[in-house]
Structure formats: C-alpha cells, structure tokens
Amino acid sequence: MKIFRNRNFVKLFFAALFSQMGTTIGNMAFAFYLLDHFSHQPSYATIAELMYSLPTILVFFIVGVVADRFDRKKVAENCDWIRAALTVLLFGALFTNSIPLIFLVLFLRSAVTKFFFPAENSLVQGILNKEQYAQAAGLNQMLFSIFMVFGVGLGAAIYKTVGIHGAVIVDFMSFIFSALFIRSCQIPTSARLPNGKVDWKDVNIKSSLGDFKDGILYIIKNRLLSVLIFGFFIFGFFNGAFAILPMFTMKYELSPENYEWYASLFAVSLGFGLLTGSGLGTLIASKFKPHQLMIFPIFLTSLLIFFLGFTDKLSIFLVIVFIIGTCLGPINIAIGGWMPKIVHPKLMGRVSGWIDPLMMFAQSATLGLIALLFPKFIQEIDYLYYGIAFVILLVSLFYAFTLPKLSEAFEKKQKLLQRKQKTQKPSNIPSM
C-alpha cells in the first residue's frame, strides 16, 4: 500500500498504538487487582473505570483548542512524557495501599490522555490525502484489533505472573516508546500549526471559550457531522457497559473461579472479531457508501447484545462477542474515513475535542448507573444487556432514517464546491 511509504504516518500509527497499550494493559490489571482484593465491593472496579472517563469534565473545553492553536506534534509528545512521569508516581502509590491516592493518580493520568488523541488525529489528517483517509482508518482499526487481542490478555497474564507492579512498568515503557516515535516524525509546519503560531500569553479564558464555541457551532451547522458526533455519544454508552459488564458476567455468573482467564478470552474474541471486520471493511469500503457500512452492522449489533444477556453458555457468549466485533469493524472504518472529509483541517482539533467528551460523558453515566444499580437494585446482569441492546436498536433506526438523505446532500454539496473551485480561487475560511 502507498500509505506505508509515508513514514510519518507509520510512526504516528505506532505511537498511537503504544499510547493506547500503555493505558489499556494497566486498566485491565487494575480491574483484576480491585476485584481480587475487594471482591465484596464490585463498585471499586467500576469507580476505577470512572477515573478514566471523568477527567473529561475538567478539560473538555480546552482539549480541542490546544490541538488547533499549538504545535500538535509537541502536544502529543508531551502528553506521553507527562503520563510516563505520572506512571512512576502510580508505581509508588501502590506501595501505600491507599485506594484514594491510586484513584487520584489514575484520574490525573487520564486527564492528560484527553489531549493526546485530538492532537495525534489532527496530525494524521495533515499528512494524508482524502483518498487515504478510509484506508488509514481501516489500518488503524486492524492494528488496534491485534493489540486488543494480545494487549488485554497480556494485562491479565502480567497481573497473574508479576502482579500489578509489572503491569505498571509495561505502561511506563509504552508511553516512552510512543513519545520517541512522535519525536522522530518530520511533519511540515502546515500540519503542526494550521492556524499559525500562537503564544501561551495569547491564550486566555475568553479566547478558549471563543474557540470552543466555534467548534460546537461548526458541528451544529453541519447536520451530517452532528449526526455522526451523536453516534460517538452512543458508542461511549456501549464502551462504558462493555468495560465492566463482561468481567462481572464472568466473575458472578459464568466462571467465578476462572473469571480472569475468560475475561481475557472475551477481549480476544472481540479483538479477533474487530480484526476480521476491519479486514472486510477495508476491502469493501470503496464498494459501499459510508452510511451503508454503518446502519446494518449497528442493527445487527443490537440483536447480538440482546442474545449476550440471554445465553448462559461460555462458548456461545464468546462466539457472539466475536460476531459483535466483526460488526464494529466496518462501522469504525466508515466513521474514521468519513470524518476527515467533512471537517476542515483548521477545525479538526476542536471537532475531535468534542468527540472524547461526549463518549466519556456517556461512558461515565453508564458506569455510574451500573455502580448504582448492580447489585443493589438489579441482581441479574442479563437485564443490563437488554437495556443496552434496546438503546443500540434505537440508534440503528435513527441512522436508517437520517444518514442516507444527509449523505446524498453532502455529496451534492461536494460536487458543487468542486465546480466552483475550477472557476474561483480556494477560500481559507472553513465551510460550515
């Protein structure tokens, strides 16, 4: 593939992989650690997941502004160095056995993470052409799937062999590798600073709020973009539920004595499903329109989640999880390839800055509800799966009624703009 000839893309690709690995392995290890040491308080594991999502509330209004106003390469690299330093503090905090202190460090590390992906995502848009966006999204999804297969299982294996401290060391090394990959990139200034150079003294609360307002107005005025952003909110709901529900299912229903092993198999099944779906999605992406790669897989996913709650056999549970992963692959490729075509490069950071808050808000709300309802009010985990399936079903119906029309309107607008560009000079003002 020609995209692999772009060394900057390859380096950013691996930087994002190591960055995500540094977060996921530690997260899984901490979940096992809390369930082992506080098995009668399952809410602790849920609260740990909240520490990864709640920081969004504190930084969401400046994340996109930082990605658009400052050097995107330096922002992404410095996020890795800071997280590596916080991981060292986390390693020390474990020896104190203070759960509040551990949660505080996890909270701070997660807050820094929120700045990484908008900056890194904006850099990728700046070094590729439009024809490569869907291809890049497919490759990112495929490699992430491979990492998910081995990464989560590695987190469980490390915890079972060398304990939580070993997992934290892996976290630390992953952030270091990610920072080094980003530092080695040779990215043009136009991609790093699309809005020109800005000094910290020029950034204040008023200017940040103004940039934040520009981002939300840009999203609201672009109906297709608004609908896609809403999809990320729903995926946050899905992510929140599946961050903890499979582990609870194994621990309290399907395999209490070997829940770590089967929780890892859940991740492996989902990862292989994502890998399969991403491969298929990459092959057929050029033959179908993006909305076609989204509507049916989302509908099928809702049905499969319902069956997850219905089944009481581990083998069937894992097979269904694999099929769910296969459905998610094309959805992620469609959105990942569509977004850069819709969003102007100068506003990509501010738009990306809205995605994470919406996902994390939905994820935090879901985790909060689970912590509140289970097991005090809802003793059967099955009902939680049924509720999630119903919400995803509504989303598939909503997309079926809206996306085809919006997609057609967007294509007509693009053709009209291309005709105008042949007779007029291109404008530097972002199009709404």
UniProtKB/TrEMBL annotation:
Pfam families: MFS_1. Residues 8-407 form the Major facilitator superfamily (MFS) profile domain. The keyword Cell membrane applies. Keywords: Cell membrane, Membrane, Transmembrane, Transmembrane helix, Transport. It is a multi-pass membrane protein. It is found in: Cell membrane. The chain crosses the membrane at residues 12-35, 47-67, 138-158, 164-182, 224-249, 261-286, 293-310, 316-338, 358-378, 384-403. InterPro entries: Drug_antiport, MFS, MFS_dom, MFS_trans_sf. Signal peptide: none annotated. This is MFS transporter.
